[in-house]
Amino acid sequence: MEKKLEVPEQETKQERRQRPRKSQRWGRTLGKVRQGLGVIHVMDREADIYELLQEAVEEGDRFIIRSSWDRKVRGGSREAAKHIDDALGESPVIGRLELDVAARPGQSPRKALLSIRRTKVTLRPPKTLAGYAGIPLHVVEARELHPPQGVTPLHWRLLTTEPVDTLQNCVQVIEIYSRRWSLKNFTRLLKPVATLKSVNCRHANDGKLFWP
Known about the structure:
The chain is α+β, with helices and mostly antiparallel strands. It contains five helices and nine strands; from the N terminus they run ααβαββαββββαββ.
């Protein structure tokens, strides 16, 4: 169990980057399992950190990370793309996927119909990291169509190094990430008994999925 870090009030972005942060555990986890062959790192929005993304790409790590920020990009189907959402908006819907959604507080389990888009972009570094190189990545978007009344629709933008050339590739990326999402709900039930720190799960292609 990691010690809770106190967050200073009214700190600047620069000050935040200079102090120890809870989100830095993602980088430590990558380093610990980097030697494993065929490992796919599956991470939530907390891991959408530019330095982490760049390190993972440079080290040749395989990952699927849910985007937290509509980052500035170069690329997309037209050079006019400025952000991830712009690049996705220029890309056509390539298919749909019906996904089982587990029950959540105040919500019954349901089947969600997701539209799928994908694109390739190069992330631009933030101004505070102007010396960093751009990061080439694939992005898969899963957006829920016709959610039940009163329910916030699912919307996942998944940054990944996995291939996205075909609809089947994109479905695999979404399904792998959905396992992380389901596991997160499952661990809430385990917390009164034990803290689950990580799970290794063998995927159909004999790769391993790793959840920090």
